[in-house]
Amino acid sequence: MKTNLALLLTAVVLALNPVFSGVRAHDVSILHSTGQSIQIEFRPSYYAPQPVAFNGKTFVQYNFEGSSQISSMRQAGEPDLAYKLLPLAFQSKQGNAIQILAADYEDIPNVELKPVPVLAVKDEMLVVQDLAPNAERYSQNRFLPGTVAELGAINESRSMLLGGLHVYPLQYNPATKTLRKYTRIVVEVVFAASSAQRVENDDHELNGGILNFDQATSWKFGKAQSLNRTNANNPSVLASGTWYRLTVTDDGMYLLDANWFTSNGISLTGLNPRKIRIFNNGGRELPEYVLTPRPADLVENAIYVAGESDGQFNAGDYVAFYGKGVQGAYYDQIGRTMRHYINHYGSANYYWLTYDGAADGKRMDSVVVTGAGYVPASFLDIAWVEPDQVNLIKSGKNWLSSPISPGASQTRTLALPGLIQEVPRTYRYTLAGASYQGSSFRVWEGTTLLETLPIYPISTFGYAYATDRTSEFVSAAPLSGSTSQMRFEFSSSEASATGWLDWAEVIYRRSFDPVNNALRFRAPDTSATVEYHLGQFTGTVGVYNVTDYANVKRVISSGGFYRAVETAGQTSEYAAAAGSGYRQPSAVTKVETPVSLRGIAGQYDYIIITSSEFTSAANRLKDHRQNPAYGGFRTIIVDVNRIYNEFSGGVPDVTAIRDFLKYAYENWDVQVKPKFVCFLGQASYDYRGIMGKKSSYVPTWQGGTEYDDVANTATDDFFTRIGVGFNPWFVGGRLNARSTTEADQLVSKVIAYDTRSVHDQWKMRALYIADDGLAEYPEGEEHTRGAENVANRTPDIFEKKKIYTEEYATVITTQGRRKPGAYQDIIDVMSNGVLLVNFTGHGNPTLWTHESIFTTASSIPSLTNNNKFFVLFAATCNFSQFDDLGRASGSELLMNRTDAGAIGVVSASRKVYSAQNQQLNSGVYEQMFGRDIYGRYVTERVGTALYRYKQYSNDDNDEKYFWLGDPAMKLQYPQGFVTIDSINGQPVDSVNGQVRATAIQLKSLARVTVKGSVRTDSNTISSGYSGALTLSINDATRRIIIPSFGTFSYLTPGSLIYRGENSVAQGRFSATFVVPKDISYSDSTTRGRLVAYVKDNAGDGAGYTPNIWIGGTDTSATVDTVGPSMRIMLGNNYEGSQGFMPGDVVNESPTLYVDLVDSSGINTSTSGVGHRIEAWINN
What we know:
By secondary structure, the chain is mostly beta strands.
């Protein structure tokens, strides 16, 4: 049944953006576009329905070109319905509306629609484990989804509001098994207005992917909350003065006396104690949500300075301040209990001391309360352990204890100073286990069994490597002294099962007796005047209210007791110390170079964030990118440790990097905003060096579920998301150097790519590689179609080479299934030189496909493509797992080859989903290529193309993909503008890019003259240009059917029928050749390929036309019966062999040179039989 719900609509079809329009937009037309609304017509291009058989049941999959799919674990079992994602700009987040103006569809009955598959991990790859329809969803008697179109989330990105229009051309009624298939949908989006003024208009990097970009550049809208300057004239306290960094690892009162100052090189002469100031930001992790308030600068802490009134630092004077480590405990107001916390990024907190500024320092207030009050006999305290020793999945922030085997146990000893034995204690812990049949822990306190805690089994249908449980148990089991001996005994019927302790806490009542002349205690959760009776100290006691780390107060005793007015729900925290109870910093470092990243005022395009180890390499990259020939970008190098100092108080908190980039964007300059950011230095999941060595020089952000290998991520996108949504605001890239040598080599390779790349036609070749899928699950042409979609989004000026492994023979070896033909072809094509390599299929950090058609161990060492470095897109699982400190990923190894391999890689840092991989793969190619107003092909930076794609499609799958390379690098695609002007006197394409209406026929045996020109960027002939020309003509494009995939077919260029050299003079060229007899003799509907490549000492260029068809015979052609003339020479080189005569003496290993000349050309095409040049040498 076909139905038309179309409303009457008259419109003019508008072209997409003329400056950088995508290669493929045939299914989407803009019918009307203004600042108030846009009307879009979508005509899906459907693939043939694909039957999918699994476990004795057959489903059908429907899909269309350019689709987005929901295939992920969260939707497993849902009907697998694709949608079209159309990127739009908005001028307000609220108030936008859509209307369906037309919808043509047909209903197809009796469709068993394929559900979203259940996936599992096999050989570090994601594979389909089951197709199981969700019973609830498949019983619903309505069309899913319930709407034909809807708006997705709208978020800020730079000076625009961006979002996506989701169009659903496929709807499914599971109960009636009816598929509604739309052939045409017209949607109008009406934009809400905004009255807020837009400050900047720096959106060039967004141009190309947004349908209404031109209208959006003139809109106005409000700005997000900023991390504003604290003071325009003195933006950071670190901007001037003498500074010392004090390392603090434990909570407590710290004392700096005269001896401390002198022993650390600070002279007491002229030291005014009133000018002493100490700064710190509390040591807790920064909030990851970008709008949560945070300190605008280092926070000055209130301190106590004894003897400062005379303006001199005398022998008896001292400074007292409260110091906090980065881990500790807090009172949970809701649960009315104590809990512990850690800092995932650092092991020490840092305090910043200065003494030579103009302002007096911040001092503690004194508090004295008189009169009797409530006297507590004890307070609530906590002892805890979190033994971070093992990161189970080498990802994320969660670490566990060392493993516990079945039948074994671990004992954790916790000191409970001041324990009041008769009061029951609360035990709280999280335990993890890995077992398919289940496991359990017996938890003991000494010889008392607290409980037996079952741990749920891990699922064979999930990705989790372990499961855990948190338990709480109250016990008054007797203890031996003030020490807890918690023992965790692991049990499982599986010998291979493993258990771990995550953390454990003991919450107990504690007396007010000091330990080592110090005590920290907390107020009772009550509203009253509280009188604290402290135990015996040695010496004069100082008591401090340390609830607010920045505003510590001295509590003055009254009648020998310390009193305070407490409020329920706001429990105060106190520290008391006397004599030796005061601590001293564990380390002191003079900050030699005061910095003020907040104080930078200037225009920068490119930020390089690195570590001090890699400064030399960073400076070389900076100099290169500042050269006008290689970008001319205003570049600044920022040491990551300086970011920590100013934005996280010295603690290496990764959120500080995001906050710095946000600050730089919003404050450095009003109009010119930084666009590119390069992270130069290795990242690691081991932030704190737990594995025994520094491995996270320039960190990445780790996120996801603790034990789920797929739900985890490592992404630099976190740093560039300085707005509320998932949109990155910077074009990012990473050079993941693990050593100074690697850093220098990577930068040298980037420079060599720009300066020493070979000028020849390798720059116009692209390679596409596709997996054949798994034998256990009929993936069919899934990966091959994905590769073909990418090829279809690559301009046809490229010579497209395709290695689709389904077409290669399988060989069974002792190592398993192999495809040696595909393996070798990949190495040969890469080594011969290719600008782009694209792989679609299953993979892991060390190989592609289960047949190992490309491996890090053998393929990468075999490559010989020096100065023909390729850019790789690997739409596969974790081939770029760059943060594994024990193993370099395949992407890194390709980058680290100094004389071969890749110059950049787009791939995933973690396991990813096939459907979304292919969506991103195709989407980035759409952003990477386009045409200018003259019709010539232009390319965008790879990093920019990925950045644009992520503006409207950046879910948890996409964020795992990143650009491993220099974000400002341009592809070595020939930049010169070349046109094919005429063939045998017939004009080909007009100078404004309009394609000729009819193709020009090239007949066999015909003599053909091709004329063209080299042009300037303004499309005038470059009359001063002289260089060399290579002209290549391919026969008609062929369609290849893969029989094992049913009717699936793909396109491949026809055989090369001519390639010849010529010259360019005064910007013009002319080349004549004879079409060989052995051609495909195609009909007039087919098209060949004609490419002109030019080069000189300065660079190269290319032009192309598809407006030729190869067919017919030139009956008027002169019959040529004379073979080519031949001249045979021997010598050490071609030039030296020119005078060779028969009988001449040669060395032991001469080279044979043969000159062949024929007025009709020499046919070496592969379209016929016997067209080879062969020689036989008789010894």
